[in-house]
Amino acid sequence: MNEAQSLQQAIDEPVRLAEYDPAWPARFEAERKRLLERFPTALIDVQHIGSTAIPGMPAKPIIDVMAGVASMAMADSLFELILDHGYVTSVEFNTCLTDRRWFMRHVNGRRTHHLHVVVHGGNLWHKRLAFRDALCTDAALAERYAALKRELASRHHTDREAYTRAKGEFVRSVIAQ
Hints:
Layout: H1 3-11, H2 24-38, E1 45-49, E2 63-69, H3 72-84, H4 91-95, E3 101-107, E4 110-119, H5 123-137, H6 139-155, H7 160-166, H8 168-176
Parallel strand pairs: 2-4
Antiparallel strand pairs: 1-2, 3-4
Pfam family, one: GrpB
Organism: Billgrantia zhangzhouensis
Protein name: GrpB family protein
């Protein structure tokens, strides 16, 4: 399988949730270290976000990494360097994103990491951390989200975008609190 075929396989991958894996934080830390070693002055901070960052939460076993930079101009200047560092992306998809740049790593057609490059301290930075922190501190809220994720994964098994969109209202309500 060549790189383009492996990327397409990762994009077409069905939605499959895994039970929480206590190895996920270590996988994040390894990627955080790798990114900070490669971009020590460009990355202000690197945070673990998404469901793999929430103890006990079922998740697609993909480590979501949020890297904070000074500006979107800085994010754009890193674009090719990030691609050279083992990530892939859709240029077309990124052209419609105003508040972040998105990349993924994959192995044998399976996503392993998502990298979201955003303005450190900006609106998206705060929203993503607020959502993660709310679920980490409120067990009942986390359980409601886990139940929703399971139901949506069953309903949208073959449509990753629909699965993500369907979680939006819950995410927005948590951030609004």
